[in-house]
Amino acid sequence: MRQIAIIVALSVVLALACVSWMASEAAAEPIPGTNPAASAGEPAQTQMPEITDALARFKERDYEGTLKLLKQAAQKNSELPPANLIMAQLFAQANIPGGVRNALERAVSESPDDPEPYLLMANIAMSERRQTEARLLYEKAGSLIGNVSNAKRKGILHPQVLSGLATTCEARGDWAGALRHLEAWLKLDPKSTAALQQMGQCLFQQKDEKGALAKFKEAYKIDPELLPPAANLAQLYARTGDQANAKKWMVAALTEAPKDFKTRMLAAQWALETSQPAEAEKQAAIAMQLDPKSLDAMILRGVINLFLKNYKAAEMYFEAASLQSPKNFAATNNLALALIEQDNSAKKQRALEYAEKNLQQYPKSSDAASTYGWVCYKFGKLDEAEKALRASASGGLGTDTAYFLACVFAERGNSADAKKLLESALKSTLPFRQREEAQAMLDKLKKADAGK
Questions:
Q1: What is the 3-state secondary structure (H, E, C) of the chain?
Q2: pTM of the full predicted structure?
Q3: Low-confidence spans in the chain with pLDDT less than 70
């Protein structure tokens, strides 16, 4: 999502405006909760009628009317942020990127001494990897922080500027620079777990394992709901490809926190990513014992059983996940993959129905196209299969899609392209559930070509 980086900063706008606006709980959403006014400590009854009317106008797509009402509200309450900042938030909630940008440009023009528009523009630039532009915008926002008279708003914005500056330093590999900004953040808020964890990651990048662990422990002491310190190190080592140290710290994490759900889930994911599906299933099973209703655990366990070729078990977990969350794409998409592999005509038909429905709902999803293509291949619909798989590949060729498309090419006698796809997939170090089948097919095609 292009709006990912607006996550917290835009919440300042609606929090201070006392606006109740329904939003997803997902971290990628602009508002982290369902009631930003309440999260900011503002009583819902203080909501201004102009704000209420503005929301109604926005829902009717009367954007000029919305802005007019927001400006009236800002004139009545000097603590409110500029009207166009609130407009930017509403556009972000409605997933209208163009509206966000236009509103922010107007906010800069109308309130050039306010740091927040620059901060939000910096967040967008950072999310789009325009790092130099982001750094300059964060620096501009930082230079204007002193202009914010509202203590609450200033207390929210200043840490975000420092976090953004630290992130731009990290992107350039300037870990010392990142630490300076994070230390400044901690002076503002010594109990900021976000700052402590980001500092731990910077120290890890500087090969200071001991220092990183100390920061993770400090954050964990403040908030025991965080990932345990040893698990944090295991995750970081895994990301760098140092699987020996990842295993060492994963064992330490499981020993120290055997009943921590997040640690068990991390262990299951790590085991799957390092080609240990049986161990992954063991860890995921324990995770589900700790939280039987976890949607993430159900889906992860289903994926693990796809790797184990236990398609009935995979079906069971994806079915449970889809019943709990009928609109969850991962659940229904993977359910189609589990059903199509079983020797049951009714299940195969259900697989086709799920695949068709997902492709209709998510026509731009490469995963939906890939699954639909594979299901079509299993039904012998080679033309439809190739069309869908080629469309999926246009968004980046994953190992699964490469194997699926290789099967179509092999079926049509195009062994040259099939071999290229299989060789490419087999070179990948990422988890690949058809690795054995791909190797067997490649060997068979090479043998057949050699005998010609």
A1: CCCHHHCCHHHHHHHHHCCCCCCCCCCCCCCCCCCHHHHCCCCHHHCCHHHHHHHHHHHCCCHHHHHHHHHHHHHHCCCCCCHHHHHHHHHHHCCCHHHHHHHHHHHHHHCCCCHHHHHHHHHHHHHCCCHHHHHHHHHHHHHHHHHCCCHHHHHHHHHHHHHHHHHHHHHCCCHHHHHHHHHHHHHHCCCCHHHHHHHHHHHHHCCCHHHHHHHHHHHHHHCCCCCCHHHHHHHHHHHHCCHHHHHHHHHHHHHHCCCCHHHHHHHHHHHHHCCCHHHHHHHHHHHHHHCCCCHHHHHHHHHHHHHCCCHHHHHHHHHHHHHHCCCCHHHHHHHHHHHHCCCCHHHHHHHHHHHHHHHHHCCCCHHHHHHHHHHHHHCCCHHHHHHHHHHHHCCCCCHHHHHHHHHHHHHCCCHHHHHHHHHHHHHCCCCCCCHHHHHHHHHHHHHHHHCC
A2: 0.80
A3: 1-47, 452
